[in-house]
Each structure stands twice: as C-alpha cells, then as structure tokens.
Design brief:
By secondary structure, the protein is of the alpha/beta class. 64% of the residues lie in helices and 6% in strands.
Length: 509
C-alpha cells in the first residue's frame, strides 16, 4: 500500500512538472511571436489595420463581424495607447489564454492528465490556429479563445456541475456569440450531443442552466439589439462568401459538400497525420478505444458538421472555408487525445514525438513570419508589412498637422495604417457596408483624401467615392489638388515602388 501511494504521488508530481513545462514553453512561444512582430516594419496587416482603425470608437456593432475583438482592442488602446505593441500584445495574450483554457479543458476529462499536454500541443498542428492566427487574424483569434473557454466550461459543467461552472458556461457562450457568428454551431452541437446521451441528458434539466442562459443573453444583448436594425447590412458580406452564383441545385450541393470536405481536410489533416504517426505502434487499439468522453466529443463533432451539411442542403451554402470551421474542429486534438487516453497506451514514445513536432513548429512559425517579410528583396513577393505606409504618413504629415484635418481613405487597411502613424488625426474609411452609418467624426477644417494610385504612378482623377463625399457637402471636386507619391517598399528590391495619391481640400469652419 505504501509503495502504491508513493507511485501515485510520483505520478502526480511528474504530471504537474510536465504541465509547468508545457505552459512555460507556450508562453515563450507567444513572447517570441510578439518579438518577431515588433522586429518587422511598423506597417500593418489587414486585420491589424482594421483594429487600428476601429479603435477610434466604442460601438455596439462595426461591420459584418461581431464586436468582441474590437471592444478588447478599444480597451487596450484606451489603457496603453495605439501602437504596434498594443496590437500585437493583445493578440498574443488572447492566444496564450486560449491555449491555457484548452489545457484546462483537456485536463478536465483525461484519466491520465499527462495526456492533456498532447492535446494542447496538437493545436500547433492546426494551420489556422498556429500560423494564420499569428499572420493576420483578429475575429478568428477571438473565436479560438472563446471556443477553448467554452470547451473548458462545458466539460467542467458536465463532469462536476456547480453554480460557478454554469455561470462560466454562460459567460463563454455569450462571449463566443459576439466573437464570431459561426461560434453558435459549437454550443448547438454540444446541446444535441448531451440530448442524445442518456448519461449526460439530466444536465439539460438542471435549473442552473437558466443562469447560464441569462448570463449569455446579457452579454449578447447590446450587439443583438444593434444587429436587429442592421441584419441585412451585417450579413450581406458573409453570405456573399458562403453562397455562390445560384446555379443548378445539384451543382450547389456538390460544391458545398466538396468545399466542406476540403476545408475539413485542410483544417484537421495535419493534426490527424501527426497523431497517427506519433502513436503508430498502437494506432489500431487507439482507433478502437471508447469512453464516455470520446463518445460525447465525437458526437459534438458529428452534430456540428451535420448542421453545416443542413446549411448546404437548405441554405444554399457552397463555399465552406477552413477558417470557418475553427470553433468546431478545434475540438479535434482533445478528441484524439481522449482516444489515446481510452486506449491506456504507453505515452512515452508518442509523447516524445509530439513534443518533437511541437518544438519544430514553434521554431518554424516565427521564422516563416519573419522571413516572408524580411526576404522580400530576394523573392520580390511583398507582404503588407513591406508597404511603405510610414513614408506615406510622413509625406502628408505637414498637411494634416497645420489645420484640424480629417483623413479619408477607401478602405480600412490604409485607414488603419495612417491612423497609427498620424495620431491623433481622425481617419475615416469609405468602405462601410451599405445600410450601415459611417462612424462619427470630429469637427475639422480640412479633408485629406488618400488612396492607391495606378501602377505607373499616374492618377486618373479623384476616385468616385471621394467626389460623391465632397458633392454631398457642397464642395466641387478639383483634380488639380491631386498629388501622386511613389515610394520604395520596405526591404524591397531596388526600383520596386508602391504608388499612392492624395488630395487636400480646405472646407473652412
């Protein structure tokens, strides 16, 4: 008996040590990604620029995406100011928190808690979670976090229900809904999985579930009220991405199911391959292994994918992107780890291999993120951080600082970059979806329009949206105000240049 107690104590201590090593490694990984981004030019990617732009306002809704990440970025900017550091630090802190809650979710249901390490490292094998989220995503980053938080609170509530677990479940659900709309598939699939399982079904009749629902409603309500008045404008962009040209129903169905299959493979194919190779000696036993938790998680995956199939059948969806599956298939590493746990297999060979893959990816991803920008002079392939927005801002700075000025652009990418480099000058992008009011702007005496000009550096005149903006305010557009600017790329080849144009109009008081 004494020997058994010593063995159990040693196992717990070993498990705790491995968990500390895991969290330390993940923390170092995200700190490295933050430092890599800080080493790159202070020219913003698409989503970074969008966050820079929208951080000027706190609103219930902004565009076709729900507002959770925008709110978090607004709060960060209010506390620490707008900078590349505040943009990148928030993203990496959210991603680290996602990995932390994913670890807690896995630990909640593993018989052998060491296998929770395997589940978390599995996230690094998902391209959309490991690479794309670092390269340039924001709302999907929020979805990764809220999905991880939901999985933890859901599994905790199922395993050991309490008032606190139900309240956290409501919090996770509410935050997920305002992170990205497709998140709703995860709680919907979890509900159906619980409903279909006799062992867990009584959880649905627990009065504390009403508390979770109330918390979720309170969190979602401000944006939901906004969405009621802007549903067409907010959904039009998303529906254009999901639906096709309205061809033959059979072709739409075939395209939809095909895109779902390819997106699923693109999202989880590498993860499946890594887990299969890492535990190749026991793979048949792992495939056959079953437990209550593999059954529950497997049903969540099946029901979630089934809901998408229904959208394809009856909603005309035919363009399913791998990124769109994030809140669903992010469960895959936990599901695979649960299968390993149920098989009660020897951990050590597979664990070493998984760590080897993880360390390789932890080194490779920051290297790729740095190299794709820093090697532009060799490859001739220019990424958004190579664009010369810093030089563009310096070019127009005298015009925007000599009088109260509003800078207006055609898109949020240029708007966010100029907002970052011309603070505190207000910036407005004329890319607000039809049906949505443009954000409010302060009083100004001058307007500076900025846009990308033709590749030869010439300008065909003031863009139509700018002319319309002036005419609505009783100002006659004057093409003689246009100035073309040609600037070299950052880390670019000699002679490779990017072309901007701008025009200044004094409008008086």
């Amino acid at each position: 008996m004494l020997q058994q107690n010593r063995s159990a104590a040693y196992g717990i201590r070993l498990s705790s040590e491995r968990h500390v090593i895991l969290l330390a490694a993940i923390a170092i990984y995200f700190i490295t990604n933050f430092l890599v981004r800080m080493a790159l030019p202070v020219n913003l990617e698409l989503d970074e620029a969008e966050q820079s732009y929208f951080s000027q306002w706190l609103m219930a809704g902004y565009s076709s995406q729900p507002p959770l990440y925008n709110w978090l970025q607004y709060a960060t900017v209010q506390l620490f100011g707008l900078s590349l550091a505040s943009l990148s630090a928030l993203k990496n802190l959210i991603l680290f928190s996602a990995y932390l809650f994913y670890f807690l979710a896995a630990r909640e249901v593993m018989r052998d808690r060491q296998i929770a390490v395997v589940a978390v490292l599995g996230l690094l094998t998902i391209p959309q979670v490991a690479f794309e989220a670092q390269r340039d995503l924001s709302h999907t980053v929020a979805t990764i976090f809220t999905a991880s938080l939901f999985l933890y609170t859901f599994l905790r509530t199922v395993r050991r229900p309490s008032i606190s677990s139900f309240l956290l479940l409501g919090l996770a659900t509410g935050l997920g809904v305002i992170a990205k709309y497709n998140f709703v598939l995860l709680p919907a699939a979890a509900f159906l999985a619980i409903l279909s399982d006799a062992r867990w079904r009584p959880r649905l009749f627990d009065w504390r579930l009403l508390l979770a629902g109330a918390i979720a409603i309170v969190i979602v309500a401000p944006h939901a009220l906004w969405l009621v008045d802007h549903i067409s404008a907010a959904s039009a962009h998303t529906m254009r991405k999901l639906t096709g040209s309205g061809g033959a129903p059979a072709l739409t169905l075939l395209n939809g199911l095909g895109s779902l299959a390819l997106a699923s493979l693109g999202f989880g194919g590498l993860t499946l391959a890594v887990f299969s190779l890492a535990y190749r000696e026991r793979l048949p036993a792992i495939i056959r292994a079953r437990s209550d938790w593999t059954r529950l998680s497997g049903r969540i995956l099946i029901f979630a994918l089934g809901l998408i199939v229904l959208m394809i059948l009856f909603g005309g969806v035919e363009k399913v992107r791998d990124r769109w599956l994030t809140p669903i298939l992010i469960l895959l590493p936990i599901y695979f780890a649960l299968k390993i746990d149920a098989a009660a297999t020897n951990l050590h060979p597979g664990m070493r291999r998984i760590w080897g893959v993880a360390f390789t990816l932890m080194a490779l991803i920051p290297t790729l993120l740095l190299g794709r920008v820093a090697t532009a002079s060799l490859t001739g392939l220019y990424q958004y951080p190579n664009y010369p927005f810093i030089s563009m801002a310096e070019e127009v700075r005298p015009q925007v600082t000599s009088a109260p000025t509003l800078v207006i652009t055609l898109d949020t990418h240029m708007a966010g970059n100029l907002r970052l480099h011309l603070q505190p000058v207000p910036v407005l992008a004329l890319s607000t979806p039809a049906g949505l009011k443009p954000p409010p702007t302060p009083e100004h005496q001058r307007i500076l329009f900025a846009w990308r000009s033709a590749a030869d550096g010439t300008s065909a005149g003031l863009p139509q949206k700018f002319e319309q903006y002036l005419q609505e305010r009783g100002i006659t557009p004057d093409a003689s105000q246009i100035r073309a600017v040609t600037l070299p790329y950052t880390y670019g080849r000699a002679g490779d240049q990017y072309h901007f144009a701008y025009a200044v109009f004094d409008i008086g008081r």
